[in-house]
């Protein structure tokens, strides 16, 4: 009744439609630029993560990572209907005591592409990445940002080769020409420079100056199978890591390896899952030992690598796999080792929910023991965490952690254990003090 009377009054004065039009305009501005009005002045102060030998440090204290993967953050931030998921994920993770998220800072040539074509960027998607970084900062979460995919998902090296081929400058249509084609290398360097020097519209900080970013990752799971000697990929890593460091010397850098030992490694026959692993063109030691690479990365997917082992055999292998790489970090690399992806598929024929928790606990236990002994195993990252109503983004490894009480307990227990070793970080204190105290 009141609403209709007001409407008649405004209409009688000829003001109804102008006001409605103005309101629509304001709504449009909010949908387009609404985050510019969000108060980002209350972010938690973060310091850069540094490395000294085999350990990470923050403000002079050892820093061990209980982290996770949510590769989809930028993509979902680009659509206002899904943008709230970023805050939900980051807030929930902070409450679990998680400290670092690994996510994609790339999307090449597809839907919600950050890089539409070589050197051409979508400002809307860049603002989405700005939003992700600003939200992470507000919640005291650091980010590992990966710069390109070896796989075809979200463009990857396949898209770079396609662009060069379409422009008539490609040397080869092989996906692996990404690593050696001069034109494609220029494409990628331009992309890297654009991202590293981007000024966040919400915080006013260039990415290369923002301690919210834990590290850059050159490429997710690099393989160059057309050159199993490893020389092609090694040359690319040397060139690109040097290029990144020429622009940004404040942040740490890793390659993004799965951890397989190459044909020249004495461990190729005793630590690799199977013979094929030595012929992928990568080599954990050789690729990671470069002075421009600050820490090593390893993935742990025994059920993906083996097809004829039972769960107990895979669990035993995974533990041995982790310890082998921690040994490498201590003795060969003299650098920290992060297990940046680990998971167990729920599509395995003999899968039982309890198996996943046993596998996760094994990984977390190895990291905790390494931290207690000041060894190089510096942290781990679950693959992957989702929020509700994201079923189509699940790849058989994903979980909504707060919907799985036993898994949730494992995550928070690890946060408490690492906090006991390193001391509570200032960003964790509010969330962890209450529920860690009874456990300690």
UniProtKB/TrEMBL annotation:
EC number: 3.2.1.78
Transmembrane segments: 15-38
GO biological process, one term: polysaccharide catabolic process
Highest taxon of the lineage: Eukaryota
Broadest EC class assigned to this enzyme: hydrolase
Keyword annotations of the record: Glycosidase, Hydrolase, Membrane, Secreted, Transmembrane, Transmembrane helix
GO CC field: extracellular region
Domain Glycoside hydrolase family: 47-385
Compartments, record wording: Secreted
Gene Ontology molecular function, alphabetical: mannan endo-1,4-beta-mannosidase activity
Coiled coil: none
Catalytic activity: Random hydrolysis of (1->4)-beta-D-mannosidic linkages in mannans, galactomannans and glucomannans
Pfam family, one: GH5_mannosidase
InterPro entries linked: GH, Glyco_hydro_5, MAN-like
Similarity field: Belongs to the glycosyl hydrolase 5 (cellulase A) family.
Database matches in PANTHER family: MANNAN ENDO-1,4-BETA-MANNOSIDASE, PTHR31451
Name of the protein in its database record: mannan endo-1,4-beta-mannosidase
Organism: Nicotiana attenuata
GN (gene name): MAN2_2
